[in-house]
Amino acid sequence: MDPKVFASVFGVIFVAELPDKTALASLVLATRYRALPVLLGAALALTVQSAVAVAAGQLVSLLPERPVHIAAGLLFLVSAIFLWRRDTEADDAGKDAKARSSFAGQFANVFMVVFIAEWGDLTQIGTAALAARYHAPLTVFLAATLALWAVVGIMVLLGNRAARFLKPDVTKKVAAVLFALIGVALVAGLL
Question: What's the pLDDT at 159?
Fold first, then answer.
């Protein structure tokens, strides 16, 4: 393993992921769910996406970026609408409260949101391009995955701390607005 390649890939992916929609989604999810299922669900989703990016190499970077971003944007907009309209008290008392409060339910929800949000993402395309450039798939995979995990860890910590100070209704509204902004930015081609 070449330490220079590792450091280069880690640095590029870490910096690219910090302002990314996946990082913001992890932050928002950490305000709603316990930290461990958010961290593990996001980490697994990002690990799978890194493997896809490295395996595909240059092919992933050739996917039509615009349609993928529009689809992801629409997903965020739909999620924002559901978050905004959902009655927190009724939801907590409802049937799916068990699934939402269970580790497995939270883990599955986080995995799906992050997995879908990462498709066609800058860091996924960047990972594919770096794998093609360096011809070191294992090094690129490890560096990219660890960089993504580091960002998610930071976001989960921040989101989990923020949730302790915010009421569930406020958190839900803030999450809905953030998801809507991300969705509009994706559809408009700004992300």
Answer: 87
With H, G, I as helix, E, B as strand and everything else as coil, classify residue 20. Answer: coil
**Tokens standing for residue 3:** 């330490």
- In this structure, what token pair is assigned to residue 147? 């960089």
- The pTM (predicted TM-score) of the whole model is 0.70
For 164, the token pair is 């302790």
One-letter amino acid of 48: V
Q: How far apart are CA 50 and CA 148, in angstroms?
A: 9
Name the 3-class secondary structure at 155: helix
Calpha distance 176→89 (Å, rounded) = 16
Longest dimension (CA), the chain: 54
pLDDT at residue 37 in the model: 95
Please state at what angle helix 35-56 crosses helix 137-163, rounded to 10 degrees. 160
Tell me the average pLDDT across 134-149: 92
Between CA 185 and CA 73 the distance in angstroms is 7
Question: Tokens representing 80?
Answer: 């924002």
Structure tokens at 57: 């190499």
Give one DSSP letter per residue of 59-89, joined into a string. Answer: HHHTS-HHHHHHHHHHHHHHHHHHHHH--HH
Residues 99-123 have pLDDT tens digits of 457 899 999 999 998 998 888 777 8
